[in-house]
């Protein structure tokens, strides 16, 4: 609605009803419905313990990371939480950490036997 001044809403600076303004709300359904679920604590703990198991404590932490990773992946597959990628990372790093620990124990045992 433009009057003689050529400004929508009149010369007093008001806006036409329904026009864009500071109080305009986004339309319903704006964005993604629901959004992605957040990663579970188990998935995050699995990934962190898998990383620490490769660096700090190579026998205990990878076993815990593997168990937590399997549990978190099952929860994510059932739709009870997110973080499936973190859970898989924890499973992989836990498995690699366990393999390194077994390899290290085997090498130490062979060196100990050959030193006798």
From TrEMBL:
The chain crosses the membrane at residues 47-70, 91-113. Residues 7-21 have a biased composition (Gly residues). Residues 1-27 are annotated as: Disordered. InterPro entries: DUF4190 (IPR025241). Pfam families: DUF4190. Residues 43-103 form the DUF4190 domain. Keywords: Membrane, Transmembrane, Transmembrane helix. This is DUF4190 domain-containing protein. It comes from the Bacteria.
